[in-house]
Structure of Carboxypeptidase A3:
Amino acid sequence: MYKVMNYFLIWVLGSAASAVLAKQTFHGDKVFRAKLQTEGHVALIHKIKEAIKLDFWHPDTADRMVPHTEADFHVHSDQADSVQILLQQNSVPYEVLFHDLQEGIEAQLNNTKKSKRHSYTKYNTWEKIVEWTSKLTKKYPNLVQRIDIGKSVEGRPMYVLQVGNPDSATKAIFMDCGIHAREWISPAFCQWFVKELIKGKNNIRELVKSLTFYILPVFNIDGYVWTWTEDRMWRKNRSPSEDAKCVGTDLNRNFNISWCDIGSSDEPCSEIYCGAAAESEIETKNVASFIRSHVDSIKAYISFHSFSQMLLFPFSYTYELAPDHKELDEIAKGAVAELQGLYGTSYTYGPSASTIYPTAGSSDDWAYSLGIKYSFTFELRDEGKKGFLLPQSQIKATCQETTLAVAYIAKYVLDHST
Ligand SMILES: *[C@@H]1O[C@H](CO)[C@@H](O)[C@H](O)[C@H]1NC(C)=O
Ligand SMILES: *[C@@H]1O[C@H](CO)[C@@H](O)[C@H](O)[C@H]1NC(C)=O
Ligand SMILES: [Zn+2]
């Protein structure tokens, strides 16, 4: 009986038309957290996914679902009730993280008074971030330089901020934020961290005397702009595929390390599309070329994503342990302890493949393969309650605690790298 009911509901789901609008809104859309207990639960979500578009928040693709984990996914309003009935009928324990996604989107920007200026405690548009980079270089000419490392697909300049004393520093750390467009807390952190290096506490400011920081505040600029203007839930870059069927490559699957293997897809419409070739995307190529040309000085690579509250290190593309596993694990342990010490935010840490899920072609593995031993990826707040829609009211605390972890890593790298 249940089986018949399932088929019927899944058929109803598949036949619901979904209109494509210019500026997307999300009224009545729901985000579910399914607590998968059996293979049957996993199979059910796969069946639903075959019938309709499920926007996976965590893991980042349905293929990574396994029993005894949770799956967070976003469902269009037309189909939300049917999906909820299917979960109930099949006894899949679940929570509704968002009853109305549009409300969550509006609530995210809803704590501070409106102001046109750049702010470290707000989400800033790309235009404001560009203006901010230009102001910084004028205000701190001896400390901050702006490097144009190339253009995005749509022609926007990719600016890396070089923070440090160019005369004395010989070791460098490369950091990037916003590879995935919808993870807004990530660019917010890169901006915050630049501020800390310039006018933070002494122990942070001291780092720039002997280290150079290369900070790319927004990696996937076109995607980021798209999340402000068209679709808040966009993840990939904005390059059309060759057959123009779908737009966008997952830039964190496009690096030249075990490219398009595990945890990525060669299907252009997939959210984890690896692109036409390794470094096929101009954004990936620009970053990879910059890092290659500074590889002698770059001792650490740190990439910022959200969400999950994790500190990850190589490998992503295999369950094998990295040659430097023990040391990386010790550093991660120390960094996470620093972070937790401020507000008690709990982080897990470990190699990406076993701690989150395996992915090939990711930036951290690629940097590691280049000989940059200290390679880390942060998954910032939260653990899914707000997910990509972390309210602005949490920017400050998130950035403060993360700064402590990054400073810990930077200090370690300064003292231990050769
Ligand atoms: C925005 O904040 C105001 C005041 O706190 C509140 O009344 C309103 O419901 C909020 N709007 C949303 C969409 O959360
Ligand atoms: C990717 O790496 C392989 C092996 O190191 C190399 O032969 C190839 O040229 C690289 N491809 C690109 C696009 O850099
Ligand atoms: Zn991400």
